[in-house]
Amino acid sequence: MTAGAEPSPRGARAQVEATIDVAQARRFGARLRRWFRANGRDLPWRKTRDPYRILVSELMLQQTQVSRVVPKYGEFLATFPTLHDVARARPGRVTEAWSGLGYYARARNLHALARHVTNRGRDEAATLPPDVASLRALPGIGAYTAGAVSSFAYERRAELVDTNVARVLKRVFAPDVDIKRGPGQKRIWTIARAILPRTGRAAWTHNQALMELGALICTARVARCDQCPVRSVCATHGSRFTSSPRPSAVPPPSDPASTGTGARRSRCRSAADGRSSAPCR
Ligand code: SF4
Fold first, then answer.
1. What does the pLDDT read at residue 20?
2. Do the beta carbons of residue 262 and residue 249 sit within 8 Å?
3. What's the gap in Å between 236 CA and the centre of ligand 1?
4. Active site (annotated) includes residue 6
5. Residue 19 pLDDT
6. How many whole angstroms separate alpha carbon 189 and alpha carbon 166?
């Protein structure tokens, strides 16, 4: 299934039933979202629905801790308030504004994307499209990033899977799945789609909550099951996880060419990330 494609209601219901235990999924979603509403961190990119600002946050959070991203995010947006401003700037200025975050290919990719979307800076009103398929057609946008922009900016009912999300979904729903392999990744993307709540607005909270749980509670280094809001519905509740594959994006196998921004990403999020003990998301 193409990430973000909208199945018919009947098809979606059949898919859920074939993929997971529906009652388990409902309880999981309800507890997850309730926990997030009470415990989610107050991060600046959670206060906006501007697709450009969401994209900037997603790019910055690749391989960078959230504590480093927060101040830089504000500075960068003060320098480049819109996608059009990025498109009109010299590439060197964008890279300069990115300084301190490293991985400058992200800044170069953002500049190239801005020029593409705005027709080389000619179209001042141009912005990122809302649906996953159109986002995926843009240069440098992978499956994860497309889902993130669609869900977090437009509140579309789009699933997203990065390493943190894959880890949580594996532990809760599919402990036998190998998320390093194509079939396992396909299963995780299918689960991610199947457990989405009905509305895009609820999906926004759901996706943020999934990522937050992976960042703060069900981390790569340790599963804090005693603090976990979904422990009663988790297939591996109580197990100890002391190691994890290095973080990376989890491409949907239906789209193996997912080599864009999302696919290459190794998100650094909190202890979450397995790469850092400091929160990134
Ligand atoms: S109960 Fe434990 S393993 Fe399951 S999601 Fe929560 S922290 Fe992760």
1. 84
2. yes
3. 7
4. no
5. 72
6. 8
CA–CA distance, 45 with 74 (Å, rounded to integer): 10
| CB-defined site of ligand 1, < 6 Å | 168, 171-172, 217-218, 223-225, 228, 230-231, 234, 236-237
The set of residues, in sequence order, having a beta carbon less than 8 Å from that of 11 and lying 6+ positions away, is: none
Task: Check whether 263 has a pLDDT greater than 90.
Answer: no
Q: Which residue has the tokens 């895009």?
A: 200
Residue-wise pLDDT for 142-181, tens only, equals: 999 999 999 999 999 999 999 999 999 999 999 999 999 9
Among 191, 210, 230, the mutation site with the greatest number of ligand 1 atoms within 8 A of its Cβ is 230
Catalytic-role residue among 58, 96, 124, 159 = 58
Residue 247, token pair as written in the block: 């973080």
Domains, the chain, in order of start with CATH, read 9-43+145-273 (1.10.1670.10), 48-129 (1.10.340.30)
Burial class (CB in 10 A: 0-12, 13-18, 19+), 217: buried
